[in-house]
């Protein structure tokens, strides 16, 4: 059970980070190690991580209280990613635009949150990976 739990939460997170890295390298035509730690973009790795946990509990325990607790946490993480964090990114863009003439202003990170498709993509990957793990093992 322990290795499947670890695999079900880490594998979707790693997969989404690799997908983001490939997309960013393709888009930028260059590679930087810092790209591994970017927030935002498709798919949401935080959502994939927590929905990997949701998938694990569904396949391991069915409709148990562990499943429903993890589902609620997953929905909160998804909501936070596309609502609260996305708005933070939009505010960062506006502040950076207003402060562009100030030489002492360090630009804020504008790539913070996610769009709804990015969150859904993370959730789908987060649920598919545990399904494959339980199917194959």
Structure description:
By secondary structure, the chain is an all-alpha fold. The protein has one domain (2-136). It is 72% helix and 0% strand. It has four helices and no strands. α2 (45-61) runs antiparallel to α3 (65-98) and α2 (45-61) packs parallel to α4. The radius of gyration is 17 Å and the shape is elongated. The termini are close together. The model has no long low-confidence stretch (mean pLDDT 89).
Helix content: over 70%
- Using only C-alpha atoms, the radius of gyration works out to 17 Å
Oligomer: single chain
Main sheet overview: none
Any idea how many domains? 1
Number of helices: 4
- In sequence order, what are the helices and strands, one letter per element? HHHH
Number of strands: 0
Strand content: under 5%
Q: What is the 3D shape? A: elongated
**Mean pLDDT, all residues:** 89
Low-pLDDT segments, ≥5 res: none
Summary tags:
single chain; 137 residues; mainly alpha; elongated
What does the secondary structure layout of this molecule look like, with pairings?
Elements: H1 2-28, H2 45-61, H3 65-98, H4 116-136
Helix pairs in contact: 1-2, 1-4, 2-3, 2-4, 3-4
Offer a concise description of the structure.
The chain has 137 residues and is an all-alpha fold. It has one domain.
